[in-house]
Amino acid sequence: MRRREFITFLGGVTAWPLAAHAQQQMMSVIGLLNGQSSTSSIPSFRQGLSEAGFDEGRNVAIVYRSAEGEVERLPALAAELVRLRVAVIAAVGGINSPLAAKTATASIPIVFTAGGDPQEAGLVASLSRPGGNVTGATFLGSMAAAKQIGLLRDMVPKLATIGVLVNPLGGPSLVAAVTKNVQQSALAAGIKSIVVEVNSERDLSPAFAQLIEQRVDALVIGGFIFFNRYMDRVVALTGQHKIPAIYNNRVFPDAGGLMSYGADSRDAYRQAGTYVGRILKGDKPADLPVMQPTKFTLVINMKTVKALGLAVPPGLLAITDEVIE
């Protein structure tokens, strides 16, 4: 090889890793703060990100931090993402994630997914004009109570007393919203309601014992991340005690629960991914209205219907979006 060609070749070899390093440094970094251990909805977040023109590993990097369902770890994890100077924080897996992120920074944009009302939780000034550095998507789990009670009345003959399980770790605003909506809906339907708080996994069995003692005819499982984390245990207890239950998330009927009615949380994650992409392109969180669900889905598990000795009325079956045989 001639000396001039060798120098040119050597210069190219040297320049290649430098160019690659520069490209890597130019890549935007997203901090994904997850309050729960489940990552089942993360692909939907990546889908939304891709729809906005960003793909992990190509033109954006994602730093993952998960509290594994331990809410007390969230502030430290949020502070770590702030120290890493990420471009955007995606706070998912419960209302406590964006609350921790908002406490940690007032400058880094934050995009959340949440089941409760983000305005009542203090995340945004309003749904239409969030203000500040926070916006996102909500699936308003607490707002489905009236419809859920109506569905249980169709499924359970002579429904007189209904129980509802809530988890205080979900945040006071969500607990208050779920409790209020269930109680008001039950009262309007002439049904007695009993609210039971579950603080930890060891409280689940005593909670069900209390519900049995109160002779509840059916049960609403509030849309709290805690119950998702212990989904198999919750479904097993409803089956053991023969209590018809309705859930917010369709993963419960998939696991053997009776029925679910609620917004598609996966779509909220997709919308959050889209918002992160828009912010990376220059949009401000204060100008992006909080996205709300447009569709609620009813799913019924027919095996559980039969196991509980129930029958699905034709009218209820007609409006069911999915039947699990």
Write up what this structure looks like:
The protein is of the alpha/beta class and 325 residues long. The chain has two domains: 3-139 and 265-287, Rossmann fold; 142-262 and 296-324, Rossmann fold (3-Layer(aba) Sandwich), CATH 3.40.50.2300. Helices cover 42% and strands 19% of the residues. It has 13 helices and twelve strands. It has helices at 3-26, 42-51, 74-83, 96-104, 145-155, 172-188, 204-213, 225-229, 231-240, 251-254, 265-280, 302-307, 314-318; strands at residues 28-34, 60-66, 88-92, 110-114, 134-138, 161-166, 192-197, 218-221, 245-247, 259-263, 296-301, 322-324. The protein has a seven-stranded mixed sheet, with helices on both faces. A five-stranded parallel sheet has the order 2-1-3-4-5, with helices on both faces. α2 (42-51) crosses α11 (265-280). It is elongated, with a radius of gyration of 23 Å. 46% of the residues are buried. The model is unreliable at 1-24 (pLDDT under 50).
